[in-house]
Amino acid sequence: MGVVNMMLGLATIGLAIFTIKNPHSWLFKRLGDDSEPSNACLQSIRFRGKLLVAIGVFACLMATQFFLAE
């Protein structure tokens, strides 16, 4: 159980780093929206990436409980 939680936390951190480094990616655009994102939109995407890093670190810390409890 702890291994799965750790892998999900690391995947979340990986997605967050990709979000911060590449906010222009097609993953973060709305469907059918071909316009350039505004500066405020890019800042919002980067902020969401930072929140994802925090969530991923929290998930990894919670997963270490299973390793330390044994």
Largest sheet: none
Name the quaternary structure: single chain
> Mean pLDDT across all residues, rounded?
89
CA(first)-CA(last) distance: 12 Å
The assigned structural class equals: mainly alpha
Choose one word for the global shape: elongated
Number of strands: 0
How much of the sequence lies in strands comes to: under 5%
Using only C-alpha atoms, the radius of gyration works out to 15 Å
Order of helices and strands: HH
The poorly predicted ranges are none
Number of contiguous helices: 2
Estimate the helix proportion, in percent: over 70%
Please specify the SSE layout and strand pairing.
Elements: H1 2-21, H2 39-69
Helix pairs in contact: 1-2
Task: Describe this structure as you would to a colleague.
By secondary structure, this protein is mainly α. The chain is 73% helix and 0% strand. It has two helices and no strands. It has helices at 2-21, 39-69. It is elongated and about 55 Å long. The protein starts with a helix and ends with a helix.
Features:
mainly alpha, elongated
What's the short story on this structure?
This protein is an all-alpha fold. It has helices spanning 2-21, 39-69.
